[in-house]
Specification:
Layout (H helix, E strand, L loop, with lengths): L1 H32 L1 E6 L2 H10 L3 E4 L12 H8 L6 E4 L12 H16 L4 E4 L10 H11 L4 E3 L10 H11 L3 E4 L10 H11 L4 E4 L8 H8 L3 E4 L2 E3 L8 H6 L6 E3 L1 H17 L1
Parallel strand pairs: 1-2, 1-8, 2-3, 3-4, 4-5, 5-6, 6-7
Antiparallel strand pairs: 9-10
């Protein structure tokens, strides 16, 4: 009786350990597979994003222009302060044509090399032809220069005119690891139908990452509809000016609003995301 009781206890304990180990492994796999990326264009926004629980940063300058190449100093400063991956935007000028001249490509490749040597964990890039298709040569040169680091194809995809499924397949064939898209709509919520189709079609060939206009109010619907494992947002709020007494500067310069990533908003997005994962 005593031996049988001991055997049962050990067996039950072993089963508990197996279940616990399996649960831990599942959580680890979810963490590796699922990512919340926050795009930032300042050291303040980056720190707020990290403190809020972001898994990865997309580092830019001038998010008001859709995101341009950041400064090397900003990357180096953040690499000394944060431990999460930082993907650097490669976009040397504003404008939404995403058609780059040979000289601009030279700048992009030089930036890529400098950021790679400075510790970038990945890059974000996209280029189109005058016919609205992918610029194969430009993209291939960036992929080659960035190796072995991953490269995300950005929302140039959303203004392209070619078939979205065929374009996604080309993007995967070129060696891009992710596609950031709003489903060819102004915001991801409106494009979630196409995003779902892209995810179903591309499966493990290309990570499809919804982005644009993602907020606390719509994230759950986007995740439930698309079944996306990653998403991209800015979690921004309007920053209050600390000094409005300089009336002369106000008369000389146009006063554009300044936005900054909000730590609490990032936390709320992360909680929605975690709760969604528990339902899968």
């Amino acid at each position: 009786m005593c031996i049988y009781y001991t055997y049962c206890c050990v067996s039950t304990f072993d089963q508990y350990c197996v279940r616990k180990f399996t649960h831990i492994c599942r959580l680890i796999l979810l963490l590796l597979k699922n990512q919340m990326e926050i795009c930032v264009d300042s050291v303040e926004s980056a720190i707020n994003a990290v403190n809020g629980g972001a898994h990865r940063l997309e580092l830019c300058s001038a998010l008001s222009e859709g995101g341009l190449t950041p400064s090397l100093g900003l990357l180096k400063t953040l690499k000394s302060m944060v431990s999460i991956p930082i993907f650097v935007m490669l976009r040397p000028r504003c404008g939404y044509d995403f058609q780059f001249s040979d000289l601009e490509i030279r700048v992009i490749l030089k930036d890529c090399t400098l950021f790679k040597n400075a510790g970038a964990d990945g890059f974000v890039f996209g280029a189109l032809t005058s016919t609205g298709d992918i610029d194969i040569d430009a993209c291939a040169s960036v992929i080659l220069t960035a190796q072995p680091l991953p490269v995300t194809f950005h929302r140039a995809f959303d203004i392209a005119s070619q078939d979205p499924i065929n374009m996604a397949q080309k993007i995967a064939d070129l060696g891009f690891k992710r596609l950031l898209t709003s489903g060819r709509s102004p915001v991801a919520f409106d494009g979630k139908g196409l995003i779902k189709i892209l995810i179903e079609t591309m499966k493990d060939r290309l990570i499809i990452m919804p982005g644009a206009g993602i907020q606390v109010e719509n994230l759950k619907d986007i995740l439930v509809t698309t079944l996306a494992h990653e998403f991209h947002g800015s979690a921004k709020i309007l920053k209050q000016y600390s000094n409005r007494n300089n009336t002369k500067s106000h008369s000389i310069y146009k006063e554009d609003p300044i936005y900054v990533t909000d730590c609490d908003t990032v936390k709320k997005l992360l909680n929605i995301y975690k709760n969604h994962l528990k339902l899968e």
